[in-house]
Amino acid sequence: MSNPKANPKEPAGKKVPEAAAPAAARPVEQESAAAPAAGPSAAGTAREEQDLRAENKQLFDQLLRLKAEFENYRKRMDREKPEWERMGRVQLLGKLLPLHDVLLSAHEQALRRREILEKAGESSKDVAELLRGLEMIFKEFTKFFEAEDVRAIEAAGKPYDFNVHDVVGQVETDSLPEGVVVEEVARGYTLGGKVLRPARVRVAKKPSSAPKGAGTGLI
Fold first, then answer.
1. Residue where a domain stops, chosen among 130, 148, 166
2. Do 105 and 164 share a domain, yes or no?
3. DSSP secondary structure letter of residue 215
4. What letters, b where the CB count within 10 A reaches 16 and e where it falls short, cover 117-146?
5. Is residue 128, in this structure, part of any structural domain at all?
6. Is 154 within a domain?
7. How many domains does the chain have?
8. Which of the chain's termini has less CB crowding within 10 Å, N or C?
9. Calpha distance 216→208 (Å, rounded)
10. Are residues 163 and 124 in the same domain?
11. For residue 177, what are the contacts with CB-CB under 8 A and spacing of at least 6?
């Protein structure tokens, strides 16, 4: 009697291999065995990424600090630039003023020489040419001083001012109040409203024979 559940396409009596099912299960066992080995590698990669993020953040913070320091440096230079420029001008003018003093002295001597000659009824071509040359030089100095905002300090006949005058001597006289500038020894100048060089002056002093306590009181 035949089995009604048997497959009519399969030959009767053929046996199915029993080892087929375990063989198909082997790859699953291998994958499950390899899975634990991937755990440490993934954890190491995560740590590396975390360290890299921390390093990037540290570098970014350093970059921000450097940027802030540079901005502060630039602002400080912008604030100090006018002062540095002024210092450079002060140094240049400090070298030119002594030359200007020498020329002023030569000009005054030439004027006195011309006055003496005129009183004697004489004239000197050399003195006249010297004066013309000096006056041309002074015109150039005047243009330069005006461009640099350099101004001469008024001294003669002015009351002594310790901010702009440097006393180098006293002159006994009754013609001026005590403490008034009698003579300007060296001209003083200001640069941009600030004293570049104080004027060197001599001031009036009551004669020693004057009664004690007379005058306004000397500096």
1. 148
2. no
3. S
4. eeeeeeeeeebeebbeebeeeeeebeeebe
5. yes
6. yes
7. 2
8. N
9. 14
10. no
11. 159, 204, 215, 216
The answer on 63 and 122 residing in a single domain is yes
Residue 58 host element (H or E): helix 20-119
Burial class (CB in 10 A: 0-12, 13-18, 19+), 84: exposed
Range of the domain at 188: 150-211
How far apart (Å, rounded) are the C-alpha atoms in residues 164 and 155?
Answer: 9
At residue 48, φ and ψ (nearest 5 deg) are -60, -40
**126-166: pLDDT as tens digits:** 888 888 898 999 899 999 999 888 999 988 889 999 999 99
Both tokens assigned to 67: 């940027």
What six digits make up the tokens of 77? 């230079």
| pLDDT tens, position by position, 12-45 | 555 545 544 444 445 544 544 444 554 557 677 8
Share in percent of the chain as helix, strand, coil (round to 5): 55, 15, 30
